[in-house]
Specification:
heterodimer; A: about 350 residues; alpha/beta; Glutaconate Coenzyme A-transferase; four-stranded antiparallel beta sheet; B: about 260 residues; ten-stranded mixed beta sheet; two-stranded antiparallel sheet; about 20% strand; globular
Chain lengths: ~350, ~260
């Protein structure tokens, strides 16, 4: 197989030689920013694989699996079915020297970033493997701008398919997947994938390395106590992340009986052995939307983005600090936090705004 | 003959976006105007256009109104197929998405688009943008790429800072083949005052249509590279009262996108 191939991007790129050299070295001396596929395999082999009751609290699961220095794979898509309750618990506990991996994420990564700016000794991450970080129609992330302009984090950029394919490779137990994207763009030069000449078709084809996070964090619609999970609406890349990760912490809106799972086995998107903790948590994706359960709480995205914006403009961290103190450190549980910040009436409205998307819980 | 109607910039983009879609095709949409354009097409000349949303929905019925974003649960209403990102992009890679509808911060004469950063370097950007998201893979593998941008000189640049979504690269005939991507590449660039295509021989951006009241020269003034002028360059078609009524009452009913103001720089 011919490797070290490039498209004509090398002739037309506007990226400086100095940056290209650094990125080329990063490719050449490739290291997984987390477990290798072999290490991930060993983690799977080491698991007890019976139908074990894995119900626990998010706090206990986070205490057990989140350690300094790990790679965390974040499920959901932008603000849809995102693991905000798990993220909140991780920030509250504190974790340092992290690598974050995701395709497109909004508030979850914003909470990590805001905490890193307000309480750097408690929460910090050094690297992000991503496709997209922002607020969609609300705007770009001021915190991402700050962290990148000041070289506080290292990024590795892929397309949304690229990151999804990376998790999929991890989930398949293979070290890479070929894609027909990234080539011809500057991502071909700066990310850690590799162009090859396909040994079969002769086509230039772009390989993306597997991503096997130490811990996958996902929020699902429903699951049984063993971890068999149903997802309605967008699957996002949750099944792949859960199966790729060495350990998966799953919060779920509702725990349903195993009988129900067995009645419709085709509805199980995540099989039980890949899940290590099942944490029943209503509104566990707030202020994001969970199909069939509740729709977005746009107001909170605006609120947090304005805190980030103000910090970006003034450099003053007081308001960010106060936000974390009020809503993270001075709340015992996610339920306390949600009760403190969202009026009950609004939760009812969010449920109504979902429009009763049909889901199967029995 | 209907009386002339007042048309806002975003109405013009949405209407033009609708106009370029053919019936019985599949359009991979981004948030905002692309969804509005595809909804309008479904209501008018292209009832059998179906949308792919990158979170994993295909051929949904948007009866709950316009989704706020491509991950919105409303984009999955009564879909024919609901999976995740892998499925959406693999259908696309396989050849089942005819149009990509993407945006970006900068575009060059060969239709390459930047949505990664502007100024500084990749490692230390002056302004870091969200990143590729779906756009890079859509521009690679949807058959035809349609870009929506505001027409400003700082956006229509000679060279983009970083190619996030691949167009025709340096314009060489085999650029996309060597890139290993499968779609045929840039097809249209839609702005509020001009509709662009690409010259088949040189792959350079070509002015096809301009807003009535403007001129090809005026459009050239707003672009930082030399445009090819289509031999039959003409005025853009304007939406009728009925089109505007549909846009406001059936598509963007809350006015989230159509009622935004263009910021003059």
């Amino acid at each position: 197989m011919e490797t070290g191939v490039n498209s004509k991007i090398v002739e037309t790129t506007q990226v400086s030689k100095e940056v290209l050299d650094i990125c080329a070295a990063r490719k050449k001396n490739f290291e997984f920013w987390g477990p290798t596929p072999r290490e991930a395999r060993a983690a799977a082999v080491a698991k007890k694989k019976g139908l074990i009751d894995k119900r626990t609290t998010i706090k206990e699961a986070v205490d057990k699996y989140i350690k300094d220095g790990i790679n965390i794979g974040i499920g959901g898509f932008v603000n849809t079915r995102v693991p905000t309750a798990i993220t909140w618990n991780i920030v509250k506990k504190g974790a340092k020297d992290l690598t974050l991996s995701f395709q497109s994420i909004s508030l979850c990564v914003e909470w990590f970033a805001g905490a890193m700016i307000a309480f750097p000794d408690m929460v910090n991450f050094k690297r992000v493997e991503l496709s997209w970080w922002g607020y969609e129609i609300i705007g770009i992330s001021p915190l991402l701008r700050h962290l990148t302009a000041n070289e506080m984090i290292e990024l590795d950029d892929y397309t949304n398919y690229g990151m999804s394919a990376r998790f999929k490779a991890g989930a398949m137990g293979v070290p890479f997947l070929p894609t027909r994207c990234h080539g011809g763009s500057d991502m071909e030069l700066v990310n850690r994938g590799a162009m090859i000449k396909c040994p079969f078709s002769g086509d230039n084809t772009y390989l993306v390395p597997a991503s096997n996070p130490d811990v996958g964090i996902i929020h699902t619609s429903a699951a049984d106590m063993y971890g068999n999970a149903r997802i309605f609406g967008a699957l996002c890349t949750c099944p792949e992340i859960a199966q790729a990760a060495c350990h998966t912490i799953m919060s779920t809106e509702v725990v349903i009986p195993n009988d129900s799972i067995r009645q419709y086995p085709n509805l199980t998107e995540i099989p039980f052995p890949v899940v290590d903790a099942v944490c029943e948590q209503q509104f566990g994706g707030w202020p994001g939307a969970v199909y069939g359960m509740y729709w977005f709480d746009m107001e909170h995205f605006l609120q947090f983005r304005s805190l980030g914006n103000e910090f970006k403009q003034t450099g003053n961290t007081d308001k960010l600090k106060k936000y974390y103190e009020d809503y993270f450190f001075n709340c015992d549980t996610w339920d306390d936090f949600v009760a403190k910040i969202v009026p009950h009436k609004k939760l009812i409205e969010m449920r109504k705004n979902d429009g009763q998307q049909p889901i199967i819980l029995t | 003959m209907a009386a002339p109607v007042e048309v806002s910039p975003f109405e013009m983009i949405a209407y033009t976006g609708s106009r370029v879609l053919e019936d019985n095709s599949v359009v991979f949409v981004g948030t905002g105007l692309p969804i509005i354009a595809a909804m309008h097409a479904q209501l008018t000349h292209a009832p059998n256009v179906n949308m792919i949303f990158e979170a994993g929905s295909f051929a949904s019925i948007l009866e709950q109104g316009m989704p706020m974003s491509v991950g919105d649960t409303r984009a999955f209403r009564k879909a024919c197929f609901a999976k995740g990102l892998c499925a959406a992009f693999e259908l696309t890679q396989r050849g089942y998405a005819d149009y990509a509808f993407i945006g970006g911060a900068q575009v060059d004469q060969f239709g390459n688009i930047c949505s990664t950063y502007e100024g500084g370097t990749y490692l230390k950007p002056r302004v870091r943008f969200p990143g590729s998201g779906g756009a890079g893979a859509m521009a690679a593998n949807c058959e035809k790429t349609i870009a929506i941008m505001a027409l400003e000189k700082r956006r229509f640049v000679k060279k983009v800072d970083f190619i996030t979504s691949v167009g025709f690269g340096d314009g060489s005939p085999d650029y996309r083949e060597k890139a290993g991507v499968l779609g045929s590449g840039p097809y249209r660039v839609i702005t509020n005052v001009a509709l662009f295509g690409f010259c088949p021989d040189t792959r350079r951006m070509m002015l096809l249509e301009y807003l009535p009241g403007k001129s090809p020269e005026a459009i050239q003034e707003m672009v930082d590279f030399e445009l090819v002028m289509a031999p039959d360059v003409k005025e853009m078609a304007l939406p009728t009262e009925e089109d505007l009524h549909l846009l406001h009452t059936k598509c963007d009913t809350a006015g989230l996108f159509l009622k935004r103001k263009v910021v003059e720089k």
